[in-house]
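#struct-help
A.M.: can someone run this one for me? Single chain, 132 residues.
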Amino acid sequence: MEKLLNNAFNGDPRSIGRLISLVEADTPSAKEIMKQVYPRTGKAKIIGITGSPGAGKSTFVDRLIEQFQAEGRKVGVIAIDPSSPFTGGAILGDRLRMQGHALNENVFIRSMGSRGHLGGVSRSTHEASLIL
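D.P.: on it. Structure tokens below:
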């Protein structure tokens, strides 16, 4: 676990994704992960975007990424999609609409399912934002 955390703290996208998955699945290690992550938080700006289906949220976020990249900033996106009733995972894949940034090492995009929570935000969204 220590190696995974260190890799994530050094910006490794696979390690970051793995930590988010472990926390999202509420694994036994989730609390320890957050204990290690929490002291390193508080430096990021967090922006929430919401709206009706088809309103242009993904397009807007895509433009925000472009702007922040032009300013030399690192960007993390958590795209919340409705969950599959079978797997609990995200089904729309907003990140597919932002593929132009997929190979950029300073951009991390993660889709998460709402897992049936009202308002479309899963319980683990806050933890995922702290990990980023």
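A.M.: thanks! The mean pLDDT is 83.
D.P.: also worth noting: The longest strand covers residues 75-81.
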